[in-house]
Amino acid sequence: MGGFLVNIGTFAVYPYLAVLLRERLDVGMAQVGLVLGTATLVQFASAPFTAAFAERVGLRRCLSLATCLYLLGAVTYLSGAGRPVLTVAALFLSCGAGALYSPAYRAYLVHGVSTERRPRLVSAGNAAGNLGIALGPVVGALFLHEPGRLFAMNTVLYAVLAVGHLLLRPEAPIAGGAVVEPFRRALRGLAGLPFAVTVLTHYLYMQFYQYLSVFVEGRLSAAYYGLVMMGYSLGLAVVQPLVARRVGDARYPVAMAIGFSCMALGMAAIATGRPTGVAAGALAMSVGNAVLFLKNDLEALSLSKRSAAVTFGQQRLAVGVGSLFSGVIGGSAYGLFESAGLLPGFWLAVATQCVLLPPLVIVVGRRSARRPAAVRGSAWRASRRR
């Protein structure tokens, strides 16, 4: 429930932040983009360190602190009308709250449970979050021209959440405990292959999320596009719990083959530019991402030697890196295809990458994993000879 309500509040505001910042800061879109990009980068890049913080102070305390920051951010938005500094401060407070909440929330769900139960619990948590992502923009649209009422509603929502999280049961200590690394080693014990595949997943997925609205402008109505994106998020919320057990049992390359194949089909369908093609493409993306998002996290939990909180924090960093690549590489590619008048070719190029890049990532990841093992073996043999 917490993940659902937090995302209701977050995504009631997030899709309309560009408009809000432009109005309150009285600047151009380039400056707005810089503020939003910096805040997002801070949120994702800090996730390994906020996860390490949760590892030290406890998951419940971290969740409570995060909801208090969400509340402070909503109050700052509410009082920031006519005060640009307060509006920017509210944005960074909300991003800091998200950096604290996300890894601790997922770690709390799987804390102390068996490996067999992880797929169901992780998928349930993701489904709750995706449902909030789907409904949040609808709530925000109702208050689009009355931001004061929106932030007042968010203030009440986060106040309730802050109280609710204070009433959570503290997590039970794990027998034997885990070694708590210093903050400077926040990336120690990184599960390399799941990290790389998560980067790739979000590099490809974010091109769908970031550039579809521009592509369909003049092709689809705003209402139809909104329904497509809501359907995508609802699809994730419904599909992931249904396939959780099979995804958990599947070998990683098999899950990758299914997920990236669905993404490739989705991108190719979007290239048609027709309403039915875009809707079918979003549905295929929903299925593919339901598999990949879940399997990437499960594989990271399985391979990592760190706590669940730190592992999820490392995965959030991978999401940020993939999103950054999508913005830099995908944005430049979209501009080139647009200037050439060949925009459908952009989606076909992304579809081709969905087919070609995953096998390459697997090969590189496996070779990288073998190299340290070979080095350790050589060192052991040398010590034996001495």
UniProtKB/TrEMBL annotation:
Major facilitator superfamily (MFS) profile domain: residues covered: 1-386
Compartments where found: Cell membrane
Principal location: membrane
Keyword hit for Transmembrane: yes
UniProt entry tagged with the keyword Oxidoreductase: no
InterPro entries for this protein: MFS (IPR011701), MFS_dom (IPR020846), MFS_trans_sf (IPR036259), MFS_Transporters (IPR050171)
Membrane topology qualifier: Multi-pass membrane protein
Transmembrane segments: 29-50, 62-79, 85-109, 121-144, 150-168, 189-210, 222-243, 250-271, 277-296, 317-337, 343-364
Alphabetically ordered keywords of this record: Cell membrane, Membrane, Transmembrane, Transmembrane helix, Transport
Protein name stated in the entry: MFS transporter
